[in-house]
Amino acid sequence: QIQLVESGGGLVQAGGSLRLSCAASGRGFSTSVVGWFRQAPGKDRDFVAVIGYRGGYTYYADSVKGRFTISRDNMKSTAYLQLTSLRPEDTGVYYCATRPDPTYATDSRYYNYWGQGTQVTVSG
C-alpha cells in the first residue's frame, strides 16, 4: 500500500508559478506510474500529467502542455508538478495518484492510491 501527501498549493496571481510535491510512503512507489489530476468546483476530476515509473516517459493534457512539468525522484519517493504561466482556469484541487501497472493511463479509474489534494487558486 502507498500513502500519498500533496503539498505546495496556494494562492498565486495569473502568470505566476507553483511547485507541487507528492510525497509517498509505503512500498511500491518506485515501480508505480504517477499521475496528477485536478478538480475545479462543480466539475469532474481531470487528468493533468503522468510520468512513468523510471521518469523517462511523460504525457500532458493539452491544456497544460508547455506550462506544467511533471518529474519524480524515486530516491526521495516524491513526485513533483511544476506549474508555470498559471491561468485562472488552472484553479482547483490538485491530486497525485499512483498506478502499479507500468503502462500510463489518463483515466482516474485506473489509479489505486490517491492523496488528499492540495488547493491551487489563481487570481486573475
How are the SSEs placed, and which strands pair?
Elements: E1 2-7, E2 10-13, E3 18-26, E4 33-39, E5 45-51, E6 58-60, E7 68-73, E8 78-83, E9 92-99, E10 113-114, E11 118-123
Parallel strand pairs: 2-11
Antiparallel strand pairs: 1-3, 3-8, 4-5, 4-9, 5-6, 7-8, 9-10, 9-11
Any overview of this molecule?
Strand 7 and strand 8 form a beta hairpin. The chain has strands at residues 2-7, 10-13, 18-26, 33-39, 45-51, 58-60, 68-73, 78-83, 92-99, 113-114, 118-123. The model has no long low-confidence stretch (mean pLDDT 96). Strands 2, 4, 5, 6, 9, 10 and 11 form a seven-stranded mixed beta sheet that branches. The protein has no helices and eleven strands.
Q: What order do the helices and strands follow?
A: EEEEEEEEEEE
Largest beta-sheet details: 7 strands, mixed
Any idea what the shape is?
Answer: globular
> Helix/strand-derived class?
mainly beta
Uncertain spans: none
Mean pLDDT: 96
Overall strand count: 11
Estimated helix fraction: under 10%
Strand content: over 45%
| CA gyration radius, whole angstroms | 13 Å
